[in-house]
Amino acid sequence: MGKGGSRWVGVVAGRAVEGRGQWVTVGSRGTQPGERTVGAVGGSGTQQDALLEQHAEALRLFGDRVHAVREDQWGAPTPCTEWTVRDLVNHVTGEQLWIRPLVTEGRTVADVGDALDGDLLGADPAAAWDRAAAASHAAFAEPGALDRTVRLSYGPALGSEYCSELTADCVVHAWDLSRAIGADDRLPDGLVEFSIKEVMPYADGLAASGMFAAPLEIPAGADAQTRLLALLGRAS
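The line above is the sequence of TIGR03086 family protein; the predicted structure tokens follow.
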């Protein structure tokens, strides 16, 4: 996660922004054109169906936590040290809103500009999340979307790569939100294993960027969730 106590550059849907507590989207690590992440899949309908199921499950996981936030908890701190609960939910909601313009409409980051900056939650954060999550999954589920080339700030990527990155990001942020509001922070085993495979190839590079805490030492015999969190500088 981003280091606390300073202003620094984060990435939302591959777009560099300066903001309070924002951190690099999982997977936004300067991928070279044509490079594929471990979690990305293309071509096979069976593989793509599995990815879409994992994406939907990750959205439900985060959404369950959003709906569990009490009115007095929106200003509470989170493990993303400079973010409140509302900041965290706003960030993940914004990530979902980027998907349709980039994947479905074929727009660039520059085309979208600052249209998705600022507060996206309004008076009913849970309803705002529900709308954004439904739109994001529908965009990825459209025929051909996962095979499409998406133009992110770090270069072209397959829709499946983008979907994999955001799935893992949603899983880890579900843990952050669970910790912040005192909810059950145990993550589904399948999503944890998926996220480890997605994050493992570039975890060290995230810390080297100066935007993430360094990976923690993984205790002997640690379970998969502890390993995932340690890769991203989080202690379970």
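Note on the example: The radius of gyration is 16 Å. The chain has one domain: 8-231.
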